[in-house]
Amino acid sequence: MLQSLPTFVAAVALLSSSIVSAAPWRNLRTSNANPWADWEYEACTASKTRIRVDYNSMAPWERKLYTDAVKCLMAQPSQLDPSQYPAATSRYMDYAVIHVGRTQQVHLSGFFSTWHRYFLWLYETDLRHTCGYSGRFPYWDFAATASNPHNFPIFDGSEYSMSGDGLFVDTGPIQLGAELVIPHGSGGGCVTSGPFANMIAPLKFIDPKQLQTGVLPADAYAYNPVCLMRDLNAYVSQTYTNSAQLVAAAHADNASHFEYLLNGVIGSSSLGIHSGAHFSIGGQMNSIHVSAQDPIWYPLHTMIDKVYTSWQLNYPDRAQQMNGETGTALNTPPSAVVTLESVLPDWGYFQLNPIQLKELISTTGGPFCYQYDNVIA
User: How far is 79 from 339, CA to CA, in rounded Å?
Assistant: First the structure.
């Protein structure tokens, strides 16, 4: 049920500092890559609060305003060293490359929800300051489209969509683990309709099982140009991203239970809402590492942030709870347990300054000043 949204140490620091100091993102091609990174936080007031909305609820002109801004970011030059990051072909792809570099620390770890919350905010800020976007920031309500994603404006393939399905290629079922096989969807090939038709995705596919190794493949940043692919999958969306799943997460007993409902257990029959949304899209989205190449990644993860925000608002006493996980995926390699005092892995050149997790707990505190149009209650 939906209702109106109300208005509303040291060990980990050393670990995060070592990650930051080892980060290669400081080698920029321009000196003003992120002119707003050092802004001081300002108090969030009602008049300043931005409202995030469902993409399908936006008027066609506002949807196009958003996708035009994304395409603008795709047209901006990369700020990363091309000799080190050949796949960083544009400023838009810089986000995807940085996401690859942080994947082993910010997935299946205590940093997942807050690191991605700030990553989305940086991306939104970039759309506004670099490309002049003046509209609202959208989420993809994948529960509302779970019956069949094709039937909604976000994937209808029109100029006002986020592009449609890929061309049909019979690639067969997907084996995700000994206990989990999902059927093929309705696409599998290149996306040829909508604003991102014939888009090139330069990062090679990385198997999600790579998370279990604790390291990236040696060629993780290699230039491997293929088309953007999708395989919209109504079976996956009906099974893993339906309204009942989201309501359950918004009412999780504690942070650990919330994390389980969100991310499931890798390699088991429990896919979780997050992975379910990824696999309902297919193509590059089937790789947790390189999925940020697909523009739908951002509305998808904004919806994940909405689920997280809803849980926090439904249970204010749990809003600052940690899930007991460490700062590395599956604790590989072993790392310290994440706390409110922990310093998060950085966000590449978009934000190198250290940020403690407690600064990113509220959507109307720290650097943030946004709410969602409704809460999952």
Answer: 32
**Beta partners for residue 52, in sequence order:** 372
Question: Is the pLDDT score of 6 beyond 60?
Answer: no
Residue 162 · residue 64 · CB < 8 Å:
no
Burial label, 316 (beta-carbon count in 10 A; 0-12, 13-18, 19+): exposed
CATH number reported for the structural domain that contains residue 125 in this entry: 1.10.1280.10
Mode of pairing for the β-strands spanning 188-191 and 166-168: antiparallel
Answer whether residue 221 is part of any domain. Answer: yes
pLDDT in tens, 26-68: 333 444 456 555 557 889 999 999 999 999 999 999 999 999 9
User: In terms of Cα–Cα distance, which of 356, 351, 353 is closest to 339?
Assistant: 356
Residue 45 lies in a domain: no
Q: Which domain holds residue 197?
A: 62-372
Asked whether the beta carbons of 223 and 177 are under 8 A apart, the reply is: no
Angle between helices 272-281 and 255-263 (to 10 degrees): 20
Instruction: Tell me, yes or no, whether 1 lies in a domain.
Output: no
Give one word for 188, left, alpha or beta, with left for phi > 0 and alpha for psi -120 to 50.
Answer: left
- Answer yes or no: is 346 within a domain: yes
CA nearest to 85, candidates 192, 197, 200, 202: 202
Q: Which uninterrupted H or E stretch holds 68? A: helix 60-74
**Token pair 């490309």: residue:** 131
Q: Are 97 and 88 in contact (CB under 8 A)?
A: yes
The number of distinct structural domains making up the chain is 1
- Predicted model pTM: 0.91
